[in-house]
Design brief:
The protein has 377 residues and is an alpha+beta fold. It has 3 domains: 7-104, Orthogonal Bundle (Helix Hairpins), CATH 1.10.287.110; 127-260, Chaperone, DNAj Protein, Chain A; 267-375, Urease metallochaperone UreE, N-terminal domain (HSP40/DNAj peptide-binding domain). The chain has 9 helices and 15 strands. The strands form 6 sheets. It has a 4-stranded mixed beta sheet. It has a 3-stranded mixed beta sheet with strand order 1-9-8. The chain has a two-stranded antiparallel sheet with strand order 2-7. The N and C termini lie far apart (88 Å).
């Protein structure tokens, strides 16, 4: 009978776990028990091998299917008697190794190509800039012209970095691989070639226009389409509008961060628009019909008699366009009953007469003072 532990138990995941969960579990164990982090520690090395073997099986659909059906007996042949095989093509499993070794060597995974003969071009940097737009422009969408200075491909050498009539040569340190290999524990670890910086090529006769960089700074103007309904702080991605790549690599992307200027009247809550409308005592008491502003123009709003200050009224479909074009938000109108100031003698007299007869016309006041009376009895 096999003495091996169950592979799911080794990685600490449930049977049927998703690949992403298996990868995370393996990566955690590999980082913990890798021999380079535990020199001269046979127990850690054994645990690393055990976790690697488990991940090798569970990340391979065919091996995993045989293991789930037959247990260790179903994969012993593929595992060469149970040892982890480090020479195959493990797809996603290999990506995990790249992440682990990148972390151990103090850097992330390189975004460039692989072995000899592949493109060694390096992607350009992503860029980010802010843009100011008005409240209405955010609501309805607009087009803006932005200016930025970025690296573009050198037109003289077409981005090769080499002088016209010449071309880059193969790096003699890494033989064009762009990486060098060294023994790291019981693995062979690859790192970026220090001489060609991973390009696999050397430029002996550089382009005079860009000094061999293959790119140079230039101020450019771009048209940016702002979609209706965009909100504060959201970003627009302009693909391939970032810095130029090196040695034929793709451009980076440009991210435009939206800053919406404050409006004098309106405030935004997702796709709803809020505004406060002042009304007089007489309008609140007697009711009225008045015009209120919306993003699309003035509309009539009926104020019922007896409206209290702070009441909210909803205007359907008078808000902001939802991103993607799926309907509009609403406008919420908050009524604010104003207390008059600087009264004329005639107005003062009228208010005195009202105060003498309004004892039973203020339901909120009547209820409040009834409660106060009960409180002190």
């Amino acid at each position: 009978m096999s003495t091996k532990r169950d592979y799911y138990e080794v990685l600490g995941v449930q049977k049927g776990a998703a690949k992403d969960d298996i990868k995370k579990a393996y990566r955690k164990l590999a980082m913990q028990f890798h021999p380079d982090r535990n020199p001269n520690n046979p127990e850690a090395e054994a645990k690393f091998k055990e976790a690697s073997e488990a991940a090798d099986v569970l990340l391979d659909d065919d091996k995993k299917g045989r293991y789930d059906q037959f247990g260790h007996a179903g994969v012993n042949g593929a595992q060469g008697g149970g040892g982890f095989q480090g020479n195959g093509d493990f797809g996603d499993f290999g990506d995990i190794f790249g992440d682990i070794f990148g972390d151990m060597l103090g850097g992330g995974r390189r975004r460039g190509g692989g072995g000899q003969g592949r493109s060694r071009g390096r992607p350009g940097d992503d860029l980010q800039m802010g843009i100011d737009i008005t409240f209405s422009e955010a609501a309805f969408g607009c087009e803006k012209t932005i200016s930025l200075t970025k690296n573009i491909k050198c037109e003289t050498c077409s981005g090769s970095g080499a002088k016209s009539g010449s071309s880059p040569t193969t790096c003699d340190y890494c033989n064009g691989h762009g990486e060098v290999r060294r023994q790291q524990g019981f693995f062979t670890v690859s790192s970026t070639c220090p001489k060609c910086n991973g390009s696999g090529q050397m430029i002996k006769d550089p382009c005079q226009s860009c000094n061999g960089a293959g790119k140079k700074k230039k101020k450019i103007d771009l048209q940016v389409k702002i979609p209706a309904g965009i909100d504060q702080g959201q970003r627009l991605k302009l693909s391939n509008e970032g810095d130029a790549g090196a040695l034929g690599g793709p451009n980076g992307d440009l991210y435009v961060v939206i800053n919406i200027k404050q409006h004098d009247i309106f405030e935004r809550d997702e796709f709803d628009v809020h505004c406060t409308v002042p009304i007089s005592f007489s309008q609140a008491a007697l009711g009225a019909e008045m015009e209120v502003p919306t993003l699309s123009g003035k509309v009539a709003l009926k104020i019922p008699a007896g409206t209290q200050s702070g009441v909210k009224m909803r205007l359907k479909g008078k808000g902001i366009q939802r991103l993607g074009g799926y309907g509009l938000g609403d406008q919420i109108v908050t009524v604010h009953v104003e207390t008059p100031t600087k009264l004329s003698n005639e107005q003062k007299e009228l208010f005195k007469r009202i105060s003498e007869v309004d004892h039973n016309s203020n339901p909120m006041s009547r209820g409040f003072f009834d409660k106060v009376k009960d409180l002190f009895q």
